[in-house]
Amino acid sequence: MSAGRLAALIASLAIATVSGLASALAEVGELKVAKQYGISYLPLMLMEADQLVEKRAAADGLGTLKVEWVTLAGGAPMNDAILSGSLHFASGGVGPLATIWARTKGGAGDVKAVAAMNSMPLYLNVRRADIKTLKDLRETDRIALPAVKVSIQAVTLQMAAEKEFGPGNHGRLDHLTLAMSHPDAQAALLSGASEVIGHFSSPPFQYQQLKAGGVHTLVNSYDVLGGPATFNLVWTTTKFHDENPKGYLAFFKAFQEAIDTINKDKPAAAQRYLDIAKDRRSTPQEILAMLEDPLIEYTLTPKSMMKYVDFMHRTGALKIKPDSWKDMFFPSAHAQPGS
């Protein structure tokens, strides 16, 4: 090969290498993030309202990063959206996260959790006084929850049903459940005119229902689990995580900042929730009481994850089971004392 041809080849290889590196280092200029309803999503609400991700991205040298926020009604549409590529970050309960982790494991678009968001009890509230146990539910009764079979409420109901009716009866009440957003389900429950006689929800809805009167709690998730457990998490694809390290880190830092903000000044956080959510049912004192409840915690630490996962695997909802909770999380969460 002549010296001229060799020089040309080296130049072309250099250009290709630089071009490939530029492509590899190019990150998305817009993030699409989804949240759901309720005070459990307050960290994401603060991130949106205060543009925390955008500020972190700018501070970390990522430049201008646009963040688009959407609100979805449950974990099932979250997973559909993230699998279709229309979302970068999804949020929801342990059930939807475990479901999509198992479904995508080993593929090009496998999904893992960024971190936990909170731990809080979930109540199945019912409006009929004659319903004392799950055995008192009638065939015409309906229980509203965010997503049938896969939402954390649905999985908790299955666990409660197995305790009530015995092994193998975890799906005994599945046919009585229907998917509804929390605001719509609460309206149906409190109307007294709907087939919806129960709502398996989350704060603040469950407390608003009890305050309204004529409603009592039938199932408490902490009773079913035997203690505190993670309610919500945030997740994304490995593809996004690997191709957008700066964008991922900016989101994670903003997420941690939002949780720290809540924990440092709960009175201010309570007022922020009311303002952002436009909640007219609750007072600042009521929201503050929830935030100060020792059973409610905003934390990055996953709790009792494996209790849910073991149950879902044993009952066939998950075809594969992680060896540890860490298998379902990116390294950003591995330093946490999870379970």
What does the model show?
- The chain folds into two domains: 29-119 and 229-333, D-Maltodextrin-Binding Protein, domain 2; 123-225, Periplasmic binding protein-like II (D-Maltodextrin-Binding Protein, domain 2, 3-Layer(aba) Sandwich), CATH 3.40.190.10.
- The strands form three sheets. Strands 7-6-8-5-9 form a five-stranded mixed β-sheet, with helices on both faces.
- With 339 residues, it is α/β, with parallel strands linked by helices.
- It starts with a helix and ends in a 25-residue tail after the last helix.
- The radius of gyration is 23 Å and the shape is globular.
- It is built from 14 helices and eleven strands.
- The longest helix has 23 residues, at 3-25.
- The protein has helices at 3-25, 42-49, 52-59, 75-84, 94-104, 152-165, 182-191, 205-212, 221-225, 238-243, 245-264, 266-277, 284-292, 305-314; strands spanning 30-35, 66-71, 90-93, 111-119, 123-126, 142-145, 177-179, 196-200, 216-220, 230-237, 297-298.
